[in-house]
Amino acid sequence: MIAPCLAWDAQDRPAALERARTRPVDLVIVGGGITGAGLAREAALRGIPCLLVERGDFAGGTSSRSSKLVHGGMRYLAEGDLRLVRESSLERNWLCAALPNLVRPLPFYYCARKGTPDTPGRVRLALGLYDLIGRAGVRSELPPSTILSPARLHAEEPCLPTEGVTLAGRFLDAMVDDARLTLEVLKEARQLSGGQDQLLNYVEAVRVGIEDGRVCEVECRDRLGGGAFTVRARCVVNAAGARAGGLMGGAAPIRPTKGVHLVIPNARLAIRGAFVLRSVDDGRTFFALRRGEVTLIGTTDTDFEGDPDAPTCTREDCDYLLRSVNAAFPQAHLTDRDLLSTYAGIRPLLPDPAVPASRVSRRHFIHDPGTGLVTIGGGKLTTFRPMAWELLTLCSRRGYLRPLRGRERQRDFSRRPLPAGVTWGAFAAALGPAGLDGLVPEATLRHLHQQYGRSALRILAAIRADPASGAPLLAGHPFCRAELEHILAFEDAPTLQDVMARRTEMRWTLAEADQADLAPRVAEIMGCYYAWDGPRLTLETTRYLDEVRTTLHCRRDAHD
Q1: 131 near 138, Cβ under 8 Å?
Q2: Which of 3, 280, 386, 470 is least buried, going by the fewest C-beta atoms within 10 A?
Q3: How far, rounded to the nearest angstrom, does the alpha carbon of residue 454 sit from its chain's CA centroid?
Q4: What burial letters (b/e) apply to 229-266, b meaning 16+ CB within 10 Å?
Q5: What is the DSSP letter of 436?
Q6: Distance CA 463, CA 470 (A)
Q7: pLDDT value, residue 358
Q8: Could you give the CA distance from residue 378 to residue 347 in angstroms, rounded to a whole number?
């Protein structure tokens, strides 16, 4: 029942760097977000040796700063992109079945309101098309949409004033921890290769060498240790996201746009599901989403100029979202003082200056100048698998990689369960026979199941051996030492930021004061594991808390 899991300890980094330097590979992937992770998985499934390098942490960019949804993309119906809706819906259905602990259904409400473009006819048509496109000819884990009267809507979501609402459409999509999805895909790729494929964070590709018009090597730099090495390769895929336009050797131009999200305590809105909202400023749609004890509000969509590693939520971004949420929920009176956290990500989209940022296509694009250096941009978290399949197929067809054989060529070759995936029922049924029942409160148990799936059994076994390791690190929250020790042993997290912002959801679900309490405790556990000295502990904690404060600069009191 426990998922197979290779040790992946940051203390083994020197050996991993040496293997990367000396092992021949066919493919080098630049970028450790969901796109690069998906490609590494596709290659590993076909036995194609690869190396993945990421200049920061895995999912450190947009792949940890999305709306945290696996969805069909209902708003793309209005733009006429039915093909994207179909593809996204099929992948949503697959992920709900392949990783049910992490990809979890969430009801959405789309309201028809008097005096707005969202008429009853528009809502009915949208839901009908969404069902037809996403469910025709396939099995779905999600039930079909439903039309609700205002009274029924109020019964399901009493927090929403129904004045002016003529009806509401309810449909289901799914929520996900985007960074953990990326990590689970990377872990499967590594498992499939028996640990032979090296997936390296904090390693930057600084130069791509080209001889006689073809890729021949990639020069890499270790951003933690400072060393450098060169890898021979036949094919390089630039999946660097917002930095994709900067890699030498024929990278495609991109149009970076910024998406901002606000996080508030769910008690402030008391929503039970998610709402499709319309901006009172420009009419574009965005979401208010319940995620456990918090509500996620976003996203914005504006052109971005600046450091792609450091986008932030400005006061203007914050006000833009809060104005519209307060218009829909006037009893809430939300202000920036309600913020638990904010985050911002950069989308690497097609350079189309003729349309506003919010209308630029979310379809992925592939730029192939014929050298063996191929760039991919755009796309959605939900569609990472078909993006990777198309990219690998192109590289094979162009002769950059070996020909694909038999079933390897099929689009659904990789449509299989992920190793960690397990339903709550199957997980709970396994606890008794394994002697793991009753070790932690149910809230902690559900948290471990949700985030780690089958691997949660390994964490529970550690708690059985050391009951103190299952105690909460912070009252009222499920995080415990055994969980962190599992991360350090199996998920390659060399810094405090990696653990709190991406291996867990501590970073964006806790208030600033709680962060100040929890960060030193997590750093101490990491310090014991990694043998950090006092100055290193102080450095890790200070850097992390400075980042927390930076993301809350949009609050007015931050400038007082």
Answers
A1: no
A2: 280
A3: 20
A4: eebebbbbbbbbbbbbbebebbbbebbbbbbbbbbbeb
A5: -
A6: 5
A7: 63
A8: 7
Pairing of strands 203-211, 294-298: unpaired
Residue 232, classed as helix, strand or coil, is: strand
What value, to the nearest 5°, has the Cα angle with vertex 231 and ends 229 and 234? 165
Give the strand pairing for 50-54 and 198-201: parallel
Backbone phi, then psi, for 26, in 5-degree steps? -90, -30
Which amino acid, one-letter code, is at 42?
A: E
Write out the two tokens for 181: 């999805």
pLDDT at 310: 86
pLDDT (0 to 100) of residue 357: 62
443-499 residue pLDDT tens: 999 999 999 999 999 999 999 999 999 999 999 999 999 999 999 999 999 999 999
pLDDT number for residue 307? 86
Domains observed in the chain: 10-63+179-254+361-409 (3.50.50.60), 104-175+256-356 (3.30.9.10), 424-559 (1.10.8.870)
Comparing CA positions, the residue from 319, 277, 26, 71 lying closest to residue 157 is 277
Query: Beta strand pairing status for 255-265 and 294-298?
Result: antiparallel
Instruction: Judge whether 339 and 295 are in contact, CB under 8 Å.
Output: no
C-alpha to C-alpha distance for 112 and 303, rounded to whole angstroms: 30
Let me know: does 148 contact 167? Beta carbons within 8 Å. Answer: yes
| pLDDT tens-digit readout, 166-201 | 999 999 999 999 999 999 999 999 999 999 999 999
Burial (CB count <10 Å: 0-12, 13-18, 19+), residue 156: middle
Q: How far are the Cα atoms of 8, 223, 233, 413, 458 from residue 200, in angstroms, in the given order?
A: 11, 11, 16, 26, 24
CB atoms within 10 A of CB 23: 13
Pairwise CA distance, residues 468 & 497, whole Å:
24
Contact 302, 142 (CB under 8 A): no
Residue appearing with tokens 């997590």: 522
- Tally the C-alpha atoms within 13 A of residue 285's C-alpha that lie toward its C-beta: 19
Q: How many Å apart are CA 38 and CA 58, to the nearest integer?
A: 12
* Tokens describing residue 42: 């596709």
Category of 406 on φ-ψ map: left (φ > 0), alpha (ψ -120 to 50) or beta: left
Task: Describe the crossing of helices 442-452 and 424-431 by its angle, rounded to 10 degrees.
Answer: 120
In whole angstroms, give the CA distance from residue 543 to residue 493.
15
User: If we measure between CA atoms, which residue out of 285, 288, 322 comes closest to residue 160?
Assistant: 288
What amino acid occupies position 275?
F
Token duo for residue 548 = 């927390």
**β-strands 274-278, 104-113 pairing:** parallel
Phi, psi of 214 (to 5 degrees): -130, 150
Distance between CA atoms of residues 179 and 156, nearest Å: 31
